[in-house]
Automatic annotation (TrEMBL):
Gene3D superfamilies: NAD(P)-binding Rossmann-like Domain
Domain of life: Eukaryota
Alphabetized UniProt keyword annotations: Oxidoreductase
The protein's name in its UniProt record: NAD(P)-binding protein
GO molecular function: oxidoreductase activity
InterPro entries according to UniProt: NAD(P)-bd_dom_sf (IPR036291), SDR_fam (IPR002347), Sec_Metab_Biosynth_Oxidored (IPR052228)
Amino acid sequence: MPSLAVVEASNAAFSPSYIPVIIVVGGTSGVGQAMAEALARQTKRDAHIIIIGRNATAAERILASFPKPTESDGWAHEFVQCDASSMANVRAVCASLRARLKSVNFLIITAGGPASNSFIESSVTPEGINSHLAMRYFMRYLFTKELLPLVVCAKEMGQHAHVMTVLSAGFGMRIRTTDLGLHEAQSRSIKLLQGIFPSIAAVKGLVAGMAYNDGLVAHFAALHPEIAFTHIQPGSVLTEGSSSLPLGWFLAPLSWVLLCLKRALSHTQDECAKYMIYGLLDVERGLFIRDNYGDIISAHVFNPDRKNAPLDLRSLTAQKFGVLNGVLMKGYGGSDASVAALVAYTEQVLATIP
C-alpha cells in the first residue's frame, strides 16, 4: 500500500508533451467529481476535461473552479449532459463525441447506480434493463465500446490510452450465466416487503455489477492488447451521499451502526481521487484489477499479436472461474466462457435499443 505522499509525488510526475483529453462519466459528484477536479489542478490548463453527467448546475460550478485554457488553445473544458441509464442517450452522446474529437487519452467511468445504490429499490428501465445493471454495467460497456476508436487513436499517436471503470474490483464475484439480466430475480422480488427488507433484484444487481465489470475489462483488453484497461474499487469514501445507508426502516439500527463504522474507516473524496489517479497513470497496456489504494491485485498483458482476437474458448481452462486466458487471476470473477456469454447477452440486449 503506497503512502499518500508517494501517490501525490507519482501523480505530480505526470507531465505529457501533449494536451490529454480526459472524459469522466459521472464527474458531477462523488469520486468522479474529485478525480476531475484533481486532474484539472494537476495539469493546470494543459488538459481538455469533459465531464458527463446529469446535473448541469453542479457541472457549471465544478468547471468554474478549473484553470482556464486560453483562446489560442482552441478548446475548453466541457460538460455533456446525459442520463446514462438510457442506452439510447449514451449512444447519442458517444456519436457526438466521436464526430468532434480526434482522440481520447483517459476514459474514466465512475457513475454509480439508481436511488443512491439502494438495496431496497429495484426497477426496470424503459429500455427493459434492470436499473442497477443499467448504470453499473450496461452504460459502462457501451461508453467503452463506442469511445474505444478515440482511445485507439490516442495510442496510435504514441500517447497514453487507458479505460478505467471505478466500481467494486477485487472481490472475485463469479459471472453466473443464468439470468444474466436478472429478470427472474426481478419477478421473485416480493413487492409487499420492499421498503422493509432488501430487494432480491437490487442486491443481485449490486453483486452482478462487480462481476460484470471484470468481464467488461477482460473482453476489451483481449481485443485491444495495446491499451490499458482497469477495474478498480474506490473503497469506502465519504461523499455527499454518505449520510445514509438505504437498508429499509426495519434495518435502520443496523444502517446507523454501519454508517458510523464507514465514517471511521473511509477516505475523503480527494484522498480517494489521488489513489484512483495513481492507478490510472502508472501503466501502459494490459488488464488490471486494483484495490482502493491503486495497488495491483492481479494483472494480465495480452500478446499484442492477438489484436482484435476474442478470449480463447478452446483453452482447457476456459471454463474455470478466476482464470483469464489460461492465467489464474486473484480477485477476478470471470472465466473465458462466462465472459463470452456475458458479452453475447450484452450485445443482444443493446441490439434491441435504437
